[in-house]
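Show me any protein, fold above all:
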Amino acid sequence: FNYNSFFKAYQPQEALSTEWRGNTKSKGILLARVSIPKAYMPKTNFSNAYMTIGVSTDPKEIKSCMTDAINGEIKGGTVTIAGYPFTKFTLGDAGAGNFYDTTSYRGLLDGDCYAIEYTVHSTSIGAYSPDQGIKEFDKAKIQNEFENMIASFKFLVNSN
């Protein structure tokens, strides 16, 4: 996949963990992570954002991969990513003036459950005094960066 050179991407070591996707206790493998630092939108209430790509062979995850919205998720429709069907889920969370908006795409490829997710973290604009010059961040710009990355995906597996 393609990504903005300002962002940081890395491939973690292949070890089973719950980091393969958010909002789960099942284990899988985190294949890659891309981070967007605060410096991408200075002088705004943008904190950071990141995208993860993970896979699980856990039978429970495979069974519910594209169907089950859990722990406050909202199930959306089906989208096509690199020629394969994925289900979109969204989740919003907040606490102590922090907001976390997660978009998750989950699909079955080669018999395994893949999750492509991005989370945008921001703070309450009301927490800043006007003299600080902090502006509301452009959430759509961050989301478009992630969606463009996802649109550039190519999978090297066969779908079952």
About this structure: The longest helix spans residues 139-151. The chain has a mean pLDDT of 93.
